[in-house]
Amino acid sequence: MELDKAAICLAKLGNPVRLAMFRLLVKAGDEGLAVGDIQKELDMPHSTLSHHISHMITSGLLIQSREGRVLRCRLDYKLTENLLEYLMKDCCKGLHGS
């Protein structure tokens, strides 16, 4: 992962609502959640939730698909793993590496 992509992802997660949604979707796992279920869990108006979902989609962290009349949201776990690996890849190596 490149610095710019990591910065975009982290900027999108730097909002309390989006971070709460991210954590909720982590709990949901691969199945994800319907938008209506996210709305109930986070207790917010649909228009507000749509705004935050849009931000998460543009970061690439969120994937949305239609299943009949239901919009389902899932995390892009590959991107999430890459982001976490990027943040931790030099952990405990010191300033000059090893």
UniProtKB/TrEMBL annotation:
The keyword Translocase does not apply. The keyword DNA-binding applies. Coiled coil: none annotated. It comes from the Bacteria. Keywords: DNA-binding, Transcription, Transcription regulation. Residues 1-95 form the HTH arsR-type domain. InterPro entries: ArsR-like_HTH, HTH_ArsR_DNA-bd_dom, Metal_resp_trans_reg, WH-like_DNA-bd_sf, WH_DNA-bd_sf. CDD domains: HTH_ARSR. It holds the Pfam family HTH_20. Gene3D superfamilies: Winged helix-like DNA-binding domain superfamily/Winged helix DNA-binding domain. This is ArsR/SmtB family transcription factor. It comes from Kiloniella antarctica. The lineage of its organism: Bacteria, Pseudomonadati, Pseudomonadota, Alphaproteobacteria, Rhodospirillales.
